[in-house]
Amino acid sequence: MKFETKAIHEGQQSDPQTGAVIVPIYLTSTYEQEAIGQHKGYEYSRTGNPTRTALEASLASIENGKYGLAFASGLAATTTVLSLLKNGAHIVAGDDLYGGTYRLLEQVVKNWGVTTTYVDIDHIDDWENAVQPNTKLIWIETPTNPLLKIIDIAALANIARKHNILLVVDNTFASSYFQRPLDLGADIVVHSTTKYLGGHSDIIGGAVVTSNEKLYNQLKFYQNAIGAIPSPFDSWLVLRGIKTLAVRMREHEKNAFFLAKFLAQHPKVERIYYPGLPSHEQHQLAKLQMSGFGGMISLELKGDFTDVERFVSRLKLFLLAESLGGVESLLCYPAKMTHGSLSEAERMQRGIKDNLLRLSVGIEHQIDLQKDLENALS
Ligand code: P1T
Questions:
Q1: What spacing in Å lies between the alpha carbon of 349 and ligand 1's midpoint?
Q2: Which of 18, 34, 124, 317 is 20 to 30 A removed from 360 (C-alpha atoms)?
Q3: Which residues, judged by CB distance below 6 Å to any ligand atom, belong to the binding site of ligand 1?
């Protein structure tokens, strides 16, 4: 079955009792048991809920994985995956990551006795050099947040296999439509479903997908033991969002491409980051491992903070807000927003400059979006 068909049907049979075409929202915390030890597959909604089961099947199918698990947020999904690690373990991670993931690694996971080495993404040899005898996991985002760098998933999967460690890919920016890391050799895929999968900026959610049964059983145990699960209503909203993921992603990409080309030639733009442009450093790799380049653009403006403030204040359609992946266009100032938990030195080291802005390009008409940017830059 093709992606579009799976996204609409997988895990979503008509309701056996009523024939309802859409999976109901099972607003129940618990389930009557027929006798002690006998039930219909559900006991308590932290452990399992039929609306969440449908979402988890859908998530697995769109990632070409065997098993899906849904969470209360992207960071809840990340925390649950990192719970696989024990005191003394070591992680190798890319140095361009969502600020909240970095904060989790440095301010929470480190307290468990699990340390992380951050690798300069641009040097593939550095990844293998960073592996230590106690390294258990490689964690990457690709494209990265916020600099939209592309990491070679298949190459890292080879390194991970060679050293018997897990490769986890946060696939939030590409979405399951444009990139399927499990097909490229990753062990686990993570999403913030808050973004493209939900698609309408109305929920917070997360997902984990794997094809490894042993890992799935461990992760399912932690999902229940930790308890950071999504509500039935949030599960239903993500399930609904996934149905239109393909059409939305095609529009996000079309608009982003158009705006990236416009911004790349604008005299007030110093630098543009969009993997679809041939000028992007890893454009060839992006072409190879993704089927599209997504809807995110980052740019550096010429000038100082006053010019950035002026640009931000003049935009009308691009709303200044955290997050991404909704139908509406958003603008983020990473230095103070998504990456505000990094010190200035950490930001500078990673290339998150004071003139960097990030656009989540929505699916409004591209001409209106272009006019908005043009006006703000004038
Ligand atoms: O916000 P939450 O659903 O918990 O997801 C965290 C997360 C994980 N991974 C990536 C790549 C992310 O971008 C995020 C959240 N990011 C934003 C809120 C943002 O504006 O970038």
A1: 21
A2: 124
A3: 73-75, 98, 100-101, 141, 145, 170, 172-173, 192, 194, 204, 206, 322-324, 332, 338
Domain that holds residue 256: 246-377
What pLDDT does 124 receive?
82
- pLDDT tops 90 at residue 119: yes
Do residues 151 and 251 both lie within one domain?
Answer: no
CA-nearest residue, atom 5 of ligand 1: 74
Nearest residue by C-alpha to atom 21 in ligand 1:
323
pLDDT in tens, 89-101: 999 999 999 999 9
Q: Are the CB atoms for 90 and 114 separated by under 8 Å?
A: yes
CA of residue 53 relative to chain centroid, distance = 21
Q: Are residues 235 and 128 in the same domain?
A: yes
Please say which residue of 243, 266, 282 terminates a domain: 243
- Report CA-CA distances (Å) from 324 to 172, 173, 331, 332: 10, 9, 9, 9
- Same-domain status, 31 and 78: yes
255 and 198 in a common domain:
no
The answer to whether residues 181 and 221 belong to one domain is: yes
- 149-164 residues labelled b (16+ CB within 10 A) or e (exposed): bbbbbebbbebbeeee
Residue ranges of alpha helices (H) inside 190-302 are 213-226, 232-243, 245-264, 283-289
332: β partners? 358
Identify the domain boundary among 217, 243, 269: 243
Phi-psi region of 325 (alpha: psi -120 to 50; beta: other; left: phi over 0): left
197 and 267 co-located in one domain: no
In the chain, DSSP assigns E strands to 67-71, 90-94, 115-119, 135-141, 166-170, 188-192, 206-210, 269-273, 296-301, 319-320, 330-332, 356-360
How far away, in angstroms, is 98 Cα from ligand 1 center? 6
- For residues 56 and 124, membership in a common domain is answered with yes
Which of 80, 98, 298 to probe ligand 1 with, by most ligand atoms within 8 A of CB?
98
At residue 123 the predicted structure's pLDDT band, cuts being 50, 70 and 90, is confident
